[in-house]
Amino acid sequence: MLDTRPIADIRNLRVQFPTKKNTVVAVKDVSIDIKPGETVCVVGESGSGKSVTSMALMRLIGYGGGEIVNGELNFEHRDGRIEDLTKRSDAAMQDVRGNEIGMIFQEPMTSLNPVFTLGMQLTEGLIHHKKMSKAEARKAAIALLRQVRIPEPERRLDQYPHELSGGMRQRIVIAMALACQPRLLIADEPTTALDVTIQAEILALIDQLKKESGTAVLFITHDMAVVAQIADRVVVMFRGNKVEEGTVTEIFENPQHEYTRSLLAAVPRLGEMTGTEYPVPLRLMDGSDVAAEPIKGTDEVLLEVKGLTTRFPVKGGFLRRTVAQVHAVEDVSFTLKRGQTLSLVGESGCGKSSCGRSILRLVEPSAGEIRIDGEDVRAMSPSALRDARRDMQMVFQDPFASLDPQMVLGDQVAEPLKNYSICSGAEMDERVAKLFDRVELPRSFLKRYPHELSGGQRQRVAIARALALNPKLIVADEAVSALDVSVQAQVLNLMMELQAELGLSYLFISHDMAVVERVSHSVGVMYLGRIVEIGPRSAVFENPQHDYTKRLLSAVPVANPRERTLGQDREFRPIPSPIHPLDYAPEKSQYKQVGPEHFVIENAGT
């Protein structure tokens, strides 16, 4: 039975952002309360005011140029005192942040300091708030990393954020937020960068913390399947307003507001593509019909990868010599046909992103062959590679890290056109404006800076920039993971529309199995740097052969609150380390064919 008195009680909150031209009201008189042991999920489109509400509760909104102009932020401290946090000074808020209110931010690289080791950042809060010694804090930090399933936690404490994958960084941020066992945990898209197996475990971890300590959870997400699995109550926001609130069952089974109904209708569900051979566009939230013509592609091979291997050195000792290697990508082979999509799926740290970057030579492969249109990418000179990059572009996982904070967005999208002297003047301006139209962004955003946009809007700018040169191949590294369901549907449909029009090929790196099922012609499942199963999308999803593929599919959350599987009958397995000594010689991958173009690895068990 939940305590009737809320830990946090937001009343009539109004937040605005002054700009040169006018004042933008981001949150309009919103009231939300969160009781002990309760999870309240706030859902809505990108830019609806979800994150602004949470930032206001942490009193961080002022650092982003916003101001609280009305409302109360009542919070019950550990000693039972109830205080309106709007009256608390910035200096006094430091005792609350990270201690009584923990926060998991949407983009891990913006909440981790790139110049400090992970150990320093993890132990800082424990030393400051819990008065631990450095040794005690380090021991507690190692335990936290084990909780969030980081392999080799002792080694990770001495690493820097850039040395970890996006999913690994997000788990570090979650560990930092949980460190002081806060009374209120604000989770702003905490599982966006995580694959389904890790996501299930992190959600179970948050759920366990909530039950054991009575922690209240304010959970902000666009993933309606996650909402169905963890929420007690749901608040739906639209353009700064709270439009509906109710229990999770009421919202899913009897939504009252038109926006809530359209939000639920746009959710891609695993299994929707059963019986279909080719990708078809998603339903849009506005109910408009999209041409549901299947995208067949061609049988002509655009990209051929053979035996791709990428290893990163591990330095150690006084002279910083290479003492071991991270086997990030190990003996990976596949082909991608023109006009088709191959998706790579797998756990965070399995080598998906490293594989994509290796193909574009953003990181240098250790071995293997990469051919695009028959051209050997590894043999290209720097000038030839520069020319080849017109045909191959990348959309990165973290849009804030890939956009220049000091350039207006229009100039950033125009930059590839300038670099290759494709057009200039009025022609360039019109071409950039049309790219903004394509990704559903208003032309007024051309003069804005990245920090003035939400996470989803920034990702659309990154996609527009990748499309600028009309490439043949786009490596999309979690390109839609930061987008809410409505914008995700628009962007995916846009990508599929461009694929049909221009014969684009996508190497689609993702952990969202429902999205992968919707957009893919072929799917490769990666584990510890290797592809363990690869084949046509219908074969891999409807007839998975490898144990790891079956585990991935079984971990996908179901968008039905009556079918909760959180933490039930799930065997949490430690992830083996991909770090091996210099003399380690891995065996070649051997596959057996189990169907037409459907292969499963034989010699690398999981």
From TrEMBL:
The keyword Transport applies. The keyword Cell inner membrane applies. It catalyses: glutathione(out) + ATP + H2O = glutathione(in) + ADP + phosphate + H(+). It is a peripheral membrane protein. It is found in: Cell inner membrane. It holds the Pfam family oligo_HPY. Its EC number is 7.4.2.10. Part of the ABC transporter complex GsiABCD involved in glutathione import. Responsible for energy coupling to the transport system. This is Glutathione import ATP-binding protein GsiA.
